[in-house]
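Issue 218. Parser rejects a valid record. Input:
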Amino acid sequence: MAASAAQDGAVERIVIENCAIATVDANDTEYASGHIVIAGNKIESIGAGKAPENLDNVVRRIDGTGHLVTPGLVNTHHHFYQWITRGLATDHNLFNWLVALYPTWARIDEQMAYSAAQGSLAAMARGGVTTAMDHHYVYPKGAGDLSGSIIRAASEMGVRFTLARGSMDRSEKDGGLPPDHAVETLEGALADTEATVKKYHDASFDAMTQVAVAPCSPFSVSTELLKQGAELARRLGVRMHTHGSETVEEEKFCHELFGMGPTDYFESTGWLGEDVWMAHSVHMNDSDIAAFARTKTGVAHCPSSNARLAAGIARVPDMLAAGVPVGLGVDGTASNESGELHTELRNALLINRLNPVHREAALNARQALRLGTYGGAQVLGRSDNIGSLEAGKCADLVLWNISTFLHSSIADPVTALVFGAAAPVTASFVNGKQIVENNRLLFADEDAIAVSTREEAQRLARITAQG
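Output the parser choked on:
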């Protein structure tokens, strides 16, 4: 029997039928052939077989034959600005990669940030992402309104968006990695972060824009910025995000500087809790995982970036078994040049099977899909309104074409999506509004984005070369 929300005869409806459906709800409910009714910006009903008869104001009917419908993908970690520095420092570990690229990143400006955000968002949206996030932490003096330009790009693209307003105040002169001119003052970072939250954060159920407080990492921010950042976030009622336990070098750095590992350091500064999520969390021991599980601290798992930078294999199966919320992240496209989240479903599954403890039992196709949908919604604090296909939730969903020769001989649709090649997106809806049709963006010119991102990448390279 289909689940139904209250019907309103005045609302416009879209009916999708004859499709396989993976709801990713608490019971992993699936339909071999089912329907979804979108009413306004919400899912009104979902179930097996045809949609209910005599629905009012049906403005569109979509025949989903040959398609799998899933919740829209949720990206939990990214650095949009890196779209214009792809393909550099390709054989470096994290610390050497950062040292190589910080001098370039320190010269970005508002137009570069906007163009790069368009490129990053376009890659994700065209590949089934309906909720994106950007951890932007480079704010050079005189660069313009970087946060506003990124939010504008997301709004124009039509995706749901969280800006993690980052910051750095520990530069080279203080023992950090960023150049001195690439960081903010403690007071300036906190003041601008608060202003950004107050200007842009929307706490409503179907919010399209939210803001998190997000000092960059233990090796680029002061202890005081972490502590006061946590106090600021909790005073304003927003979430908190940072990098943690990404590499063995970071582990060594924290022990040398703070006399403890990253997890204990984060706990000492107020950075564990159900309102916090960490990027990477690769080097976690049993005690670290237990602390995350106890506090419900979330993790953004970025398998491709972790492999690109040789960071290691995160213990995702152990985290899930302990009850740690885990979502997927693209990470910045200077460490994951494809910039696509749907490929991370496959990479998360395959890379975690290389773990010698769990091997083939590490993750299965449905667990990977859950990481990219409901798990991401949990991590962003939005599992009550996105991340699964259920009546009353926001209408964020994707129709994947699994009838092409790349997938048609795989009987199970979820296996086809996760194990197979990247499936074409026939339609993607955010808040009930279609943003992708037949693998093309509806609210952005992909050819124009190709031109602008190339030009901005070249301009940034020239400015960097001039010193």
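Fixed in the parser; the record now loads. The first strand starts at residue 3 and ends at 4.
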